[in-house]
Amino acid sequence: MRVRVLPFGVSKDWLGAAETTVELPEGASVADLLELVTARVAGRGDVLRGIAVSVNAEYAPAGHLLREGDEVGLLPPVSGGGTTRPAKTLDEFMDRPTAIALTRERIDAEKLVAAAKRGEDGAVVVFDGIVRNNTRGRQTLHLDYEAYEEMALKQMKALAVEARERFGVRAVTLVHRLGRLQVGETSVLIVVASAHRGAAFEACRWVIDTLKKTVPIWKKETFVDGEVWADGEPFPEGLALEPEGSHER
């Protein structure tokens, strides 16, 4: 059988392709696929340590059995459901208790914060993540963000819904930029509206911390002296896989 393998982030550099088709025997699992991929990067098995794998835009364990035509994502740690369509305009954001979007346009934080407010709210808490001009002493020229978009939107929607249920807030807006960003531009905006400030603060912190660990978005940093894919935070327990041979040096 044939499956499509989609590497993201630094894994594209490992495999030298944005997409490839792999032949596997019937009954092969995610673990079998990872073993094959590890063999292709002989001598660099460590590059697959800590990755997660998706099958058809859903996280999958090592024992998941693959089928003809499956789309398998190789997901290095990220930088920082259903059929719901992401909001695309300000008017749509104003009418939704959970508004999520990926965009290649500049994020207008002021307008989105204003749109989130309602008369019943006692607090609106905002996280505005912006591109800074340096990382660990290296001068930053620009950042490039990429995502497994179908899966990222599902994960973002799930985060917004869970935040409302877990913390009892009224509304969550979550927008992330893709493509090239310049210093000072907003990369991610989270707006939480609630009757009470405590719940809004807690929900906003939880959303950004969880997004940085689970939503498949990756960041490449370009400095005056080179470029690098940003190290991601480890996946939560149960998502990261350890392919055979990944301890090779």
Q: Tally the helices.
A: 6
Number of strand segments: 14
What fraction, in percent, of the residue positions are helical? Answer: 25-40%
Strand order of the largest sheet: 2-1-5-3-4
Q: Please write the string of helix (H) and strand (E) elements.
A: EHEHEEEHEHEEEHEEEHEE
- CATH domain class of the largest domain: Alpha Beta
CATH superfamily of the largest domain: Molybdopterin biosynthesis MoaE subunit
Rounded Rg: 19 Å
The name of the CATH topology of the largest domain is Aldehyde Oxidoreductase, domain 3
Strand content: 25-35%
Largest sheet: 5 strands, mixed
Shape type: globular
First and last CA, distance: 31 Å
Low-confidence stretches: 80-87
Please give the CATH architecture of the largest domain.
Alpha-Beta Complex
Average pLDDT across residues? 86
Estimated structural class? alpha+beta
- Number of discrete domains: 2
